[in-house]
User: Fold these one by one.
Assistant:
Number 1:
Amino acid sequence: MALTPAGTTARAGVSNLGDRTWAAALVVFGGAVMVIAGLILLELGRESAPAWQRIGFLRFLVSSDWDPVQEKYGALPFIYGTLVTSAIAILVAVPVSVGLALFLSEMGPRKLRRPVAFAVEVLAAIPSVIFGLWGLFVLVPWLRTTVEPALQSAFGFLPLFQGPPIGLGYLAAGLILAVMILPTISSVTNEVLKTVPLALKEGALALGATRWEAIRMAVLPYARPGIVGAALLGLGRALGETMAVTMVIGNSPEIHASLFAPGYSLPAVIANEFAEATSDVYVGALAALALVLFGVTLILNAAAQLLLQAVARGPRRA
Amino acid sequence: MKKPVLAALAAALATAASAQTLINGAGATFPYPLYSKWFSDYTKVNTAVRFNYQSIGSGGGINQFTAGTVDFGATDAPMNADQLAKVPDAIHVPMVLGAVVITYNAPIEGLRLTQALVADIFLGRIKKWNDPAIAAVNPSTKLPDANITVARRSDGSGTTYVFTDYLSKISPEWKEQVGTGTSVSWPVGLGGKGNEGVTGLVKQTPGAIGYVELVYANQNKLAKAILQNKDGNFVAPTLQATSAAAAGVAIPEDYRVSLTNASGKDAWPIAAFTWLLVHKDTRDPVKGEAVAKFLWWAVHEGQATAASLEYAPLPKPVVVMVEKTIRSLQVQGKPVSIASAH
């Protein structure tokens, strides 16, 4: 291709055929994402129409009855289960991941960093059904015989830790999710920590700070928006995880304050019941649950974006 | 250079297509191991046909059959009136019988349960293994002082349909509160995905009780409860006891009949047919005849394979009925000919 004459450089992007084709191709790629998301929403809306018509939007959201035989459908137990398990996962995984990332980038002996980082990557590559099996055969019996009785004897006065320790339930599902999202959060956090300017750390150390004080006062505040972003990525995976959750959550559409009780999650019920759903309203109710999951994810993402902005403003003020 | 290759490929495909008719089916997962064995055996008997069966579940089978995407469907739960209204010429052909058994995780040899006990346990009314009501039926056994945890299917399933159909028959309260379906609103318990999920829950949880298919329980050597049947006898779940259930029920012309809680002194109370769904009149003459011949083979030669894979064979009187049904199938409005194969 010939060089563009110097006089037309400013308009080269418009006049050059290659550039225009390239730009058009990019619009198609970018637009495809919007079109696909739009089509998914449209199709879910169409499929779920019989359920909305029969049950009503608000009643579907706040009802906790799920009885396919009587054609009664309510989303609340599934929304609750999804939120509770994801919350447990984030509460457990974020501190561990940040600690892991600090170990990998700041504190750990150099010889150990490579193997540990490799182990974390391997963790990310394990299929979720394997996590589910491990949960069912290792984690759940351990929770039932050791962890839950111990929690009960120490904090049994809290409603969170009451009821018979079965092993399966919110706690098991939340912990499995924590292990699953740990590699995502820790590797992103690790990358974020690497971007912290050396001058900041060295400045803190030069002022007489210990290594921990340098991390607490210089590194972590600088990396905070990135860490929140990492947690957000982990949350996205936790909300949508299906297989591992359904294997350990107990699959009961009920709402309990106790973390030991069995529950259910939005993706799990869709995967479990879709194949045998024959009536229009039943299929509609499952499609409506998918829309609700879409909505929950959107709302949490928007909330997290706001949080991210607030956090990003934080250190500058200080 | 390219064109002759393509032409040769097309010609090869055309010969393959004319040499073998591909018959598509979809549906129940429970009889899938048997069907896949049947299809591979039958291809040796009749080299002109080849089967493609997707085990997507009974509900999916009915949907695909209704939509016309498959030549035959397969289901463990019969089509209801609404579904039949969409496919008026659908015919249910029973293939074999399946049984559902109650399995448990407690140190009890040969646990015996009456109808009332089964209903009360799954309704959540009996909560302890050493409940006096259980002790009364198992006088010679020492029952543990442990909680009962109910384990059931979390996925929609024909097995759940058969089991809840049984519970609805033996307990008016179950029928009123819960009812019969592939997914129901369980009063108590934990859900596991598939037979393997329920088995996992039962094995992992001391004091658990659940229901799985007989085939699955036998293959995995699970403890099976002995149940009291309609005639009042305690029977162990066996293939003979399952076949006996079909002998104790008047089978209607369309075979859409529930075999649970059947009368007969040896009948296992939680048994059911598994059906293939075909059209009474098929437009494609080659496929129509091939399906009819396969059905004929399946209810005769195929039944021996069934027993070896732990599915209960159809009793003789039912086979005689099915013969008549197969003969009544049509291709383009004319009776199908099966004689050439046998």
Note: Chain A is about 75% helix and 0% strand.
Number 2:
Amino acid sequence: MDQKIRDFLIKEWKVGTHEIAFLDVLLVVGMTIAGIMLRVSVCSYESITTESYKQIADGIKATSVFFDIAIAVLVYLFVIMFTKSKVRAMVAYGVTVALPVLVAGSAMWGLGDSVYAFFAIVSIYLTLKNKGTLGLAFFGLALFLNQNALFLLPVMILFFFWEKNRLYGFLYVFAGYISRVYLLKSGFASKFLLFRVNEQMADTNVETLLSYRFPNCFQIIGVDKFVAEYSMVAIWIVVAICFMILAFLIQYKPEFTDKKWMVLSLFFVMFIPYFAPFMNERSGLLADIIALIVGFIILERFYIPIIQVIVSYIAYSNYFRGESVIPLSYISFVVLALLFLIVVTFFDKKVQWQNR
Amino acid sequence: MLEQVIRNGFQKKFRIGKISFTVIDLLLFLFVSFAALIVRYALRNVVAGDYKMFFEPWVSTLREAGGGIKGLAAEFEYVDYTTPYLLILSYISICPFLNTLLLMKIVSVFFDFVAAFAVMFLVYHKRKNVTISIVAYGCLLFAPTVFTNSAMWAQCDIIFTSFVLWSLYFILKDKPVPGMIFFGIAFAFKLQTMFLAPLYVILWMKGKIKAKHVLFVPLMYFIGVLPSWYAGKNLWDLLTVYLFQANGAMDIYALSHKFPNIYQLIGTDTFLYEYADAGIWLTLAALMVFLYSFARREYELNQELILRMGMLLTMTVVFFLPHMHERYAILVDVLAVIFAFYQPKFFYVPILTILCSFSGYTIYLAQNNIVPMYLYTIVFLALMIDHGVAIYRMITDKKTLEL
């Protein structure tokens, strides 16, 4: 009898082109329920207490939770694409659904960050699947929703030089950015749900700081001095260094496997917010999700997402609690060490770079 | 079609003399230079305490004495700069356009680029690759301690640093005469040039320079003081400016002036006189040990070793000497940038070196002391150990450490 149950659990059923075991379904259902219950447990928290926000809070939270699950599916697709291991992909889905930064960002904080994060990461997925122009359209949409998607722009430019997308696709990116700027400047932004919440959030930052509780270089040198000077300096240095990296890669066109593209994406989504000014607690969200994918496709680096998510959540926690248990300056050194590690990983010849 | 033009157009090659470069190299060079200027422009209005306390009164004194060469005859209550920089200040004092602060910053920024070009040539000498050399040029320009020193603080450390870099460039090209002339010019500008002097002892021991070439150092210094002598200053006083500085008469109130060295671990404000003397002897002792180890063994002194030794010896000096200021590791910073382009797997060296070095800048300029200085000191010490172990392995040709 026992053996029959065991066989039943792992027996694979053909559903369309996929083969699914009952245990797979059990994990997906179980983790999805656990993920939803995790969110239900914390959704009573109100990050913004204004009346106008309260009216939209439930809508924002529900939308965000939906996209949290969509991100988890996306992580599953990435892992299956790179490793062809269904078990690993299922586990990746489960971990993503319960990822603390996603839970806190959507159900607790009630911000729509998972929406833009989903579209930004979809754009990488589509490009690696040779649908680069569609990828750029999604990237434009992500950029329209949140300018943090810009962290991936260098990768999109490199995709062009590696003939993975088309030039006209950048019109979507341009359109996305221009529309965003127009909406924000014209005041129409307040009519849209996702923009309204970001406006509300921005209003809570009364003082202009070089970093809003995000563990980056400014936590080491100070966030409140020379704000005008350092912000301009930092923007130009980030742009110049990105340009130097792009120029070097375009000049020598090294061979990139799909996994290398993921590590490179991780580098940019960590590097840019580390040196860019005015980053907020949630600026590491793209890094959290891409780190998770990298951790699952390069198992030797499993600790990268663990450290990255802890670091990111400490920043969230700093917002929720009003202070950080560990000083953010120390956390910033950890992020710097992670950046080192990512660079080392990129050049590591021992890593199995080819997809299975 | 357009896409292919864009994709391939960047790789189109040009030649200037023996060097060929591509469109993207040219764009990179122009953009990096432009961005570096913008970064410095952003900092143009910052007024540091040193400017108010020292530079502004000095420039006023020079102006009252007539400016230019005549200004050098001015009597200062206290000044620890030598003639070459005072001459620059003296001409700034009578410059009819822009203000003094801006002019001082422009001079230093100009030398940022002189130093960056030296780095570009040094890296090209090793890698024979234009793109990598331009990236190195950019990295030097964007090193926080470099642009902060010149454009924010209005300090002039980059002037002597740039001459030291050109000196190293010629030494690495086996041209000791211009190498020592540039070292002499650097010395004529600032005493801190001597932090790297132990390296030149090794270079002499290994036959890279001859004893007679060393004469260029006092010669350049002497030429440097001529304008002041001509203006009527006492020659002996001019020749002994550095003796006054070496006494540290102005700096005795702390063993370390916001620099992450040994005194940050044991305390910077106690045993001021005892530790100051002891620190000098400790520095000499440490240098003697290193110099003996590096000079006694037989090995090929290659370019990586020269840079590693340059960094270690300079770090040893600033780690043990008392009264070191925030800016005194700038030589190590720039050497570390070059080293990373010689040996890319050690890319962490310039990042950590500059991080430690910049800690003092943050405290001085922004009065922010967020991370305790002793932590930077530990990182600085770890870097020194890293250099020491690497040098030992290179000169003994051993993979592991064996005494």
Note: The two ends of chain A are 37 Å apart (CA to CA).
Number 3:
Amino acid sequence: MNIQVPREELLKQLGYKQSPRPKLVNMADEMLGLVNNLLEPMLAFKEIQDEERLPPFLKGAVLKYTGAATLGPKLENKVKDLFDEGKPAEAYILDTAGSIAMTKAGDTLWNEIRKDAASKGFKKGLRRTPGCQGIDLETQEWIFGKLGDCGLGIELTSSYMMFPRKSLSFLARFGGKLKGTFSCKGCKQYADCTLRG
Amino acid sequence: MDIIKEIYDAVMEGKVDEASSRVQQALNSKVEVNDILHKGLIAAMDIVGERFGEGELFIPQVLWSAKAMQAGMDLLKPHFSASDRTEKGTVVIGTAKGDIHDIGKNLMAIMLEGSGFKVADLGVDVTPERFVEKAVEVKADVIAMSALLTTTMQSMGEVVSLVKAKKLPFKVIIGGAPVDQAFCQEIGADAYGMDAADGLRKVKGLLER
């Protein structure tokens, strides 16, 4: 997986709509120079068969997947080092670049799943991540149980957080009717959500 | 130019080396230490916080200014007597139990320090009991908690309950993506910070009450 974080995208994410001071541009470039060596992006997904313990979001779907992606631990370790070295601006910029990269890794994972679904005749699907409305965080355990030893190196804490932190997981469904009253519009993060397909 | 104004400008511009050298120059010239602190360093950082809150400045610039302020503070500290209260207050800060996200919490800690607060940072995944123990230990004025998830923000209420049950004098402020003013009121916290700048403003407000 090849992930690029353009300078313009980073500056925009940092809040700068117009060209910031050269000092900031230089720092952003310096951090972007580090990013390529710090990213170890990986993804894995698996088609799920019908079973009794399906998470509610997948019930009734014709085609069901679970998937996860990670950037690996290097980037967030570097962010911590920068904070510890008293370089919080650099740390924050690098972390923001990591967040952009994570979004792109998530999109890549989704595209891979969609390609697989398309090969089986399904075009439109939905994805949701644990913690979103209607999907308990405990579902993480089910997801990683299904993915098994997929080589991502993601570990779950007792509260179902992922290590490395720059990781994501989701459930995806194609076909069938989504049961219940699930609605993105009730979610507080509706406006900013990048997961709505 | 007035040396205090030069210190003020160095912090506003986030020029760390210049802030250090101007503070040293002021000390060498026997400028009143409290003037350097309050009219130079803190006054500038207050404006930086305001401009951030108004969307004129963004986080990297605020962090530079906070660092410049810290550099100046480091030079001033040996000049205060033991009885001088150089800090605006003491804040115990951490990420709520079960949560391992710390960027927002780190930013808040840096902004608090940069504005003259003493900060005890407990890190991530902090139990309610630990927040309270530490606050008692350092005689804190404020407990500040961050959470990124709806599941982990629940433990913030436990901290408020502990503080109230033990009739401790600490104010409690909460922040983080899933938290809002309604949740703040629901759990009986004293304030909600929408972001680091707002959090800083609210902490200052709590201590003025």
Note: Residues 90-208 of chain B form a domain with the Rossmann fold fold (CATH 3.40.50.280).
